[in-house]
Design goal:
Layout lengths: L7 H15 L11 E5 L2 E10 L2 E6 L3 E2 L6 H17 L5
Antiparallel strand pairs: 1-2, 2-3, 3-4
């Protein structure tokens, strides 16, 4: 793979940009795919879009393996919802 030769300033800018892309947090404005409740608690499942793929997140914290397709991410979210229902989460 060919990579361009970058000067030190360009390398620094590129690394800062990539670090920001990876470290983005889930915005509260992202609508959840679903919500479940148990004992007064709530878990929200959201999809976060990143250059590396789609992250399926529970409460914006639990990062599950990234997926390259929306159907794959939704399938994983559905599996998590079913697993939570087996242990008493409803919604």
């Amino acid at each position: 793979m060919w990579l361009p030769q970058l000067d030190a300033q360009s390398q620094d800018a590129l690394l800062r940009y990539l670090a920001m892309s990876v470290d983005q947090s889930v915005s509260a404005e992202i609508p959840p795919l679903w919500r479940v409740h148990k004992n007064g608690r709530e878990l929200r499942c959201v999809l976060a879009h990143f250059p590396t793929g789609l992250d399926v997140r529970l409460d914006g914290k639990c990062r599950l393996p990234p997926h390259s397709t929306v159907p794959g991410a939704h399938a994983l979210a559905d599996k998590w919802r079913a697993a939570l229902a087996e242990v008493g989460w409803t919604g």
